[in-house]
Amino acid sequence: MEQINFYAMLNRMCYINRWGLMRNSEPENLSEHTLDVAYLTHALCVIQNTRLGGSVDIGAAVLHALYHDCCEIITGDMPTPIKYQSDNIRTAYKQVEAGANARLLSLLPDDLAQSYAEYLGDSEDPLIRQLVKGADKLSALIKCLEEEKGGNREFIKAGESTMASLKAMNLPAVDIFLEECLPAYRLTLDEL
Prior knowledge:
The chain has helices at about 5-10, 30-50, 60-65, 70-75, 80-85, 85-105, 110-115, 125-150, 155-170, 170-180. By secondary structure, the chain is an all-alpha fold. It has one domain: Hypothetical protein af1432, CATH 1.10.3210.10. The longest helix has 24 residues, at about 125-150.
């Protein structure tokens, strides 16, 4: 019987810390971020399908969210200012991510790898790609808000920049989330 290492490798997501260039009051690891992005992707898909008359495959979108950053088990978390510094860096990093995803798939036997291949990497559906990206940015914004609520001013500029990026997406489901759901993240437990 062949040993399958893929799932043990996924478990290592909890060791990949995010926001490496920032002073964090509350550390965030890749597992925590991934779960947040999956929840937020589901929320955006529900908004898209319910409020905006869409027909997004919610299961496919959430699976893309679950695996959207798995390559970082191998690559680590590349800080945003570096990752998007130039087109050359962005293109090179996409190649590194593709190689890392191929390495992860190689940890599965062929019969199982087929079920994961389409979710490691960007979706072919442009709306799913946008919704997962929106959820990823929302997760970052929520992290910034939580740090600010705790008195950490380190995340103020990152929050402003992330909010600007979210608005620039011109994605109605994200706009609805920002208007109707985001304000609650500023509340205390007693106010919820």
